[in-house]
Amino acid sequence: MAFANCSSLAHVETPSKHSSIIASSFSISPRLSLSTSSSFSSSSSNRESRKLSNFPKILRIERTATIKAQAAGVNSVAEAFTEFKHLLLPITDRNPYLSEGTRQAAATTAALAKKYGADITVVVIDAKLKESLPEHDTQLSSIRWHLSEGGFQEFKLLERLGEGSKPTAIIGEIADDMNLDLVIMSMEAIHSKHVDANLLAEFIPCPVILLPL
């Protein structure tokens, strides 16, 4: 039962290019005469070629559908980054007048909140208790001043003091509990070891902007 591949019949004349493609997909017994194989090709080529002619259309549709699905996924991600409704500004430095990095983060938070019509929550985090922070009120006044410079007189203020050195976990907990859309902080918080960059992805459930110094 030896069968020959149609590649050995490449010299056979076929009515069209489609029928030659069809012939290459079959195995033909050597017992069949040349006229039989050619008549087989001519009788079935029209039906099969019509089937094959649909393949490129299907592939094009599938490719288009895939591209559209990918584009939809990208668009949904892009929309998530343009629909901020509630922003979090963590304050981890101990400078009563705010460090340069914290000022930059405050200005950026105010600008984004103003652009998207979002609310702002500020959380002041320190391992020490309030009683041991003599300039704590001065720091709160500085926060209010810098946000008001950005056009925000009203914002929610949280204080998480005396809870140990776990600012990253605290930020993640607040972002999760309040269903926040974006956290904004300066890389200064990373460099000063107040925030652990390796734990940001683990504890914070929303996008984070880290502003360069």
UniProtKB/TrEMBL annotation:
SUPFAM superfamilies: Adenine nucleotide alpha hydrolases-like. This is Universal stress protein.
